[in-house]
Amino acid sequence: MKILDIPQSGKRGLYVSQNGRYGQISRIFVVPANPRTTDQSNVRERLTKMTQAWRGLSANQRTAWNGAASKLQTRPRCGTSGMMTGSQYFAKVNCNLALVGASSVVSPPQAVSLPTLVPSGLVITNALGVIAIKLTCGDDPTEYTIIRASAPQSAGVSVCNDYRVLGECPQPVLGKADITAMYVAKFGDPVVGTKVFVSANQMVDGWTDYPKRWSAVVPPAE
Fold it and tell me: How far apart, in whole angstroms, are the C-alpha atoms of residue 79 and residue 190?
């Protein structure tokens, strides 16, 4: 239920507090589901490898990561944030690199200026029952432009926070990058009248920008 209280997050006794879409929420604690999907397993494997790799660094290398991390802030939570630790920064950078199959690094990367994100919109068409999901692209995407999407949702849903990685953005043809095969391989064919949510962001040297998100309803056949 929604409550009025000081910002808080986490478990206390039998209750869990968290920030919801419309304010502070308090609910009874339940053991989270753990379906051990392929995506979950991949994330956990990457985190485990980076934890082990952090222990294997030299003292000087860890000092370099700690120094670089001290200049960075964690994502705000309950209105506050703090400095990142070296191990957090190391894991963040290398997990991002591992996501796209790039080699891990043992030294903190220099800050980069990310270019403007190429994908700028989502278009879904249905020509005689053949559904196509495409991203509008005015140029070729950067090397690591990562596409995520949700399973088909009700057309009445306006906000989605459950995105899964599809892969890197394909090269556009005539200004549109076709992600249909990527989407269908992950979620199956979307049904007419359902809504598809897609997000895209870039990764350069382990640095990422904030994702941009779009949605569109699968139209009836024309």
Answer: 38
Hey, how many other C-beta atoms are within 10 angstroms of the C-beta on 62?
A: 16
Q: Sketch the domain layout of the chain as residue ranges.
A: 1-32, 38-99, 119-217
pTM for the complete prediction? 0.85
> Which of 62-76, 91-105, 168-182, 203-217 has the lowest average pLDDT?
62-76
For the domain with range 119-217, which CATH number is right: 3.40.1170.60, 3.40.50.620, 2.60.120.470, 2.60.40.10? 2.60.40.10
**Which sign does the torsion angle of CA 41, 181, 166, 107 carry?**
positive
Using alpha carbons only, give the angle 154, 155, 156 rounded to the nearest 5 degrees.
90
Residue type, 216: A
Question: ∠ CA(13), CA(17), CA(21), 5° rounding?
Answer: 165
Share of the chain above pLDDT 90, in %: 71
| 3 state SS of 197 | strand
d(CA 109, CA 115): 17
